[in-house]
Amino acid sequence: MINKTMNLQHLQDAVRAAQAQKTPLSLHGGQSKSFYGRETMGDALDISEYTGITSYEPSELVITAKAGTPLHEIQQTLAEQGQYLAFEPPHFGEHATFGGMVACGLSGTSRPYVGAVRDFILGVQCINGHAQALKFGGQVMKNVAGYDVSRLMVGALGTLSVLTEISCKVSPRPPETLTLTLACDNEKDALAHMYAWHQQNLPLSGLCFDGQQLSMRLSGSHLQSIQQALQNNHPLVVNETGNDFWADLTEHRLSFFTDSRPLWRISLPTTAPLLTLAGNTFYEWGGAQRWLYTDIDATEIREQVSQLGGHATLFRGGNRKSAVFHPLPPALKTLHQRLKQQFDPAGIFNPHRMSLHW
Predict the structure, then answer these.
(1) Which residues, 6 or more positions from 48, have their beta carbon under 8 angstroms from its beta carbon?
(2) Rounded Cα gap, residues 123 and 107, in angstroms
(3) Res 140: pLDDT
(4) Collapsed DSSP state (helix, strand, coil) of residue 142
(5) pTM score > 0.90 for this model?
(6) Which of 145, 165, 313, 342 could be cross-linked to 125 through a Cys-Cys bond (beta carbons 3.0 to 4.6 Å apart)?
(7) DSSP state of 342
(8) Is the confidence at residue 139, as pLDDT, over 90?
(9) Which residues, in sequence order, are CB contacts of 276 under 8 Å at separation 6+?
(10) Strand, coil or helix: what is 188?
């Protein structure tokens, strides 16, 4: 049901006034991910009342909704039709919104196997820094015009525009899921196991290591035969509460995520060796995403990660006025600055949320 209390004109008027007075705006929805990114400033522009599913065609595998629509409402609507958001976006709070999902661009445990948030976004409507209502993309995958512009909004943290409506591809829920575990207390062995499973063309939808145990999720059909074949080579155990485990991992509810130190999100090739950084590490995405709790200086972390072809983000905690995101190469930094200038020339949207310079 569409919320009538806020309309597009309200949002445009707010942006127009801010643009005229050069007043920064702090855009937010449910604020469940306000910890992510650098500290921003400005008058609050709350999008959470701009809600409602505007179109949903289960047979077309597409849902369109206003940016303030609660994410749990989207997922409940899809579940009633046996469908879901295959990239499993984290909520990090009960008030997470559809627009916040896109703005933060965070994906869950299935991301390496099905794709990231931006791979599912078909189109967006937004308001730029001139208070113009713009539309990019469409509601079908074959609609190419402006499609890449829609993807630019994914992970931009509200620094380019005010997202107002999103069209997203959805997926049928797998007929079966199965979680298998293997006792292991050696990081090197764990990485070797995960790499070997990647090479077996298994229907993987989750693969992680917590320091004591490897966990593998399979999604699809005929999983019992695959399970038997795997157990012929490894003492694998079925985790009967596997669905809860993966949900708790995605939402950072596992005991690992209770550390009080800064939490770093490190992205590396799956073949990357162990890092020699002091701290506690959780390996996700088959080793490609590593969560690290440490008090080590950011420069030391990024130097080592860069040498291995990766990047490091200060995900939660620490100094939110610092360079939270991995520094960009000069050419890419210039491109980001040009995009910011095109969409938000006055720099009023979430200033400094991604960078000290915009």
Answers:
(1) 28, 29, 30, 68, 95, 97
(2) 18
(3) 54
(4) coil
(5) yes
(6) 165
(7) H
(8) no
(9) 304
(10) helix
